[in-house]
From TrEMBL:
InterPro entries: WRKY_dom, WRKY_dom_sf, WRKY_plant. This is Probable WRKY transcription factor 47. It comes from the Eukaryota. Residues 240-249 have a biased composition (Basic and acidic residues). Residues 264-330 form the WRKY domain. The gene is LOC109709341. It comes from Ananas comosus (Pineapple). The keyword Ion transport does not apply. Residues 225-239, 502-513 have a biased composition (Polar residues). The keyword Nucleus applies. GO terms for molecular function: DNA-binding transcription factor activity; sequence-specific DNA binding. Residues 108-135 form a coiled coil.
Length: 513
DNA sequence: CGTGTTTGACCAGCGC
DNA sequence: GCGCTGGTCAAACACG
């Protein structure tokens, strides 16, 4: 089926051409594999026929001898004129035609100018949006820092949740600012100039410094373990060590992870990529083994994923992705990458309140406390959780509320494709359609369900949202990446952002089935 | 025979 | 230092 979509993309020109010949049902028929072959052969034959026809119909004198030669429709509104001496009527119309040509050229020029002007406006708008969105995030960040500072001053209780922004612990980029402001003492709230000045109003300097820093002072258990009670102890030696070695968290090699929980009977979800299993382990606290896969779509692709069933609910398959693809993704995977990363980045773009009770990780069925306060996504907290689990920050998307797929092994993007054909009434537009799949987990977000649907519908009805969002995220994340889904040229990709926004050092190709 | 999977061994990080 | 655990490697094996 991926091939089907690919074909439609690759041969859209032929579809339109064939449509002009009354072959409009080819799009549907092409989804049938057998008819794919028919389509190609038919198309090829038609092409040959036309070429041959032109040759055959052209007589030795160059005139069109065949009766149906005039019916040739190239699909480009081109007409075949006979080549011969101009008639008297044509001679009369020459001045008129010249005037007409000039008018058309003027019109073309005018439209060209208009096009350039609109493009410029769009660029400007995108830039403004990005800048504004940046400012918004920074204000939120500053506000969070202030709150944190106040909390720290007012109470010495170390178990208070620490707020941190998504960018802080997802952005692996080492910056000069980071390095110059490196503190061996992790108590940066007291040492960071940004926080010192945070109450004096925003400034470029005070904003940028904390923004590029990743402060992981929240500790969670391993990905697939129950939350140990001891980890709540903020004075544990490990946490003390984390605080004292803050620079550890700013290593460029630190990777973010994307974890997806979904109900599936299949042993592994299908996400459009090729994976090779390289290991399997029994993980502590989970009777189900954990499988390790690496991407084999390109030599040296660093993307890996772990697949494990949830200990509490064996029907729930937890897939954790890590790394960025160093190769173009197939359309299906790219679409999913765009969709899911847009959803994830939307969640991540808000200031995250990482609480210690939050975990939707493998083997843990504990209820997720709200993590995000994104103004656009009031229900975000019930869709995904963001955790600063050592050594990898992980965002977990809980898709277990989504309906069980009709057949094991069915890729989610196919379900979504089916949804676009009316099977799923809540999904209407691709690639944002899957957003509606991010319904809150029943245990944690039932009260938000209707809100989720409402907001999801609102988002999916606005295809520009992704583009603007991607622009904003990319402006936050830095230069656009040239790998992964970015190479596949999403329709949702805004100007200057070739593809989906991606988590730094994280894979955004994930789907469920 | 080539490719992918299985599985025990190995290594590194962390806690005690 | 030792044991535990997660993650990876690589030889053996299975399969088409």
């Amino acid at each position: 089926m991926e091939r089907c979509k690919e074909m439609i993309l690759l041969h859209s020109g032929r579809f339109s051409r064939r449509d002009s010949h009354g072959g409009g049902d080819d799009v549907d028929r092409a989804c049938n594999k057998i008819k794919e072959v028919d389509f190609f052969s038919e198309s090829r034959e038609r092409k040959l026929d036309e070429a041959g026809g032109l040759r055959d119909c052209r007589g030795g004198d160059g005139s069109l001898a065949c009766g149906d030669a005039g019916d040739i429709n190239t699909g480009l509104a081109l007409t075949v004129h006979s080549v011969g001496a101009p008639t008297a009527e044509e001679e009369e119309d020459k001045p008129n035609n010249k005037m007409h040509l000039i008018t058309i050229q003027d019109e073309l020029n005018r439209l060209g100018h208009e096009n350039r002007r609109l493009r410029g406006m769009l660029d400007q708008l995108t830039r403004n949006y990005s800048a504004l969105y940046n400012q918004f995030l920074l204000v939120m960040q500053q506000k969070a820092n202030e709150t944190q500072h106040i909390q720290k001053e007012n109470q010495t209780d170390p178990s208070n949740p620490v707020r941190l922004s998504a960018q802080q612990f997802l952005d692996p980029r080492p910056t000069s600012l980071q390095e110059t402001n490196e503190h061996t003492n992790g108590d940066e709230e007291e040492h960071s100039p940004s926080l010192k000045n945070s109450s004096d109003g925003p400034s470029e300097r005070e904003i940028n410094i904390p923004f590029n820093r990743r402060k992981i002072s929240v500790e969670e258990g391993p990905l697939d373990q129950q939350i140990s009670p001891s980890w709540r102890d903020n004075n544990s030696p490990r946490q003390a060590q984390e605080r004292s070695t803050d620079s550890m968290h700013e290593l460029p090699c630190r990777k973010a992870r994307v974890s997806v929980r979904a109900r599936s009977d299949a042993p592994m979800i299908s996400d459009g990529c090729q994976w090779r299993k390289y290991g399997q382990k029994m993980a502590k606290g989970n009777p189900c083994p954990r499988a390790y896969y690496r991407c084999t779509m390109a030599i040296g692709c660093p993307v890996r994923k772990q697949v494990q069933r949830c200990a509490e609910d064996k029907t729930v398959l937890v897939t954790t992705y890590e790394g960025n693809h160093n190769h173009p993704l197939p359309p299906a995977a790219a679409a999913m990458a765009n969709t899911t990363s847009a959803a994830a980045t939307m969640l991540l773009s808000g200031t995250a309140n990482t609480t210690r009770d939050s975990s939707l990780m493998m083997g843990s069925a504990s209820a997720a406390a709200p993590l995000f306060g994104h103004p656009l996504v009031p229900f975000a907290s019930s869709l995904a959780t963001l955790s600063a689990s050592a050594p990898f920050p992980t965002i977990t998307l809980d898709l277990t509320q989504a309906p069980l797929p009709p057949a094991a092994g069915t890729p989610l993007h196919l379900l979504q494709r089916g949804a676009s054909h009316g099977h799923h009434p809540t999904t209407s537009s691709f690639p944002l359609a899957p957003l509606s799949m991010y319904l809150p987990h029943a245990k944690v977000g039932q009260r938000h369900h209707s809100v989720a649907e409402t907001v999801s519908a609102a988002i999916t009805s606005d295809p520009n949202f992704t583009a603007a969002l991607a622009a904003a995220i990319s402006s936050i994340m830095g230069a656009p990446r040239g790998d992964g889904a970015a190479n596949n040229g999403s329709a949702a990709a805004p100007h200057g952002v070739p593809g989906s926004p991606q988590f730094p050092q994280s894979c955004t190709t994930f789907s469920t089935n």
